[in-house]
């Protein structure tokens, strides 16, 4: 899902969705509903936003 979002050029949205998935997973771990955070496996796999030149 995150790769499809990145393919559309929405890098920041993909990072925010990964962040929300991690937050929900951490809550589930503390609640006892989950054993691990699957978003942690994505660390370093999402592309960062391409740099923009400020000069024309």
Describe this structure in words.
The protein has 56 residues and is mainly alpha-helical. The protein is 48% helix and 0% strand. The longest helix has 21 residues. The model has no long low-confidence stretch (mean pLDDT 89).
What's a concise summary of this model?
The chain has 56 residues and is mainly α. Helices cover 48% and strands 0% of the residues. The protein contains two helices and no strands.
> How big a fraction of the residues is strand?
under 5%
Shape from CA axes? elongated
Helix content: 40-55%
Number of helical stretches of at least 4 residues: 2
Largest sheet: none
Write down the secondary-structure element order: HH
State the distance separating the first and last CA atoms: 35 Å
The parts where pLDDT drops under 50 for at least 5 residues are none
**What is the CA-based Rg, rounded?**
14 Å
SS-derived structural category: mainly alpha
Rounded mean pLDDT is: 89
Keywords:
56 residues, mainly alpha, 48% helix, 0% strand
Topology:
Layout: H1 2-7, H2 11-31
């Amino acid at each position: 899902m995150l790769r499809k979002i990145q393919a559309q050029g929405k890098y920041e949205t993909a990072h925010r969705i990964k962040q929300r998935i991690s937050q929900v997973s951490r809550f589930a771990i503390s609640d006892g509903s989950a054993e691990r955070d699957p978003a942690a496996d994505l660390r370093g796999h999402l592309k960062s936003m391409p740099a923009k030149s400020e000069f024309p």
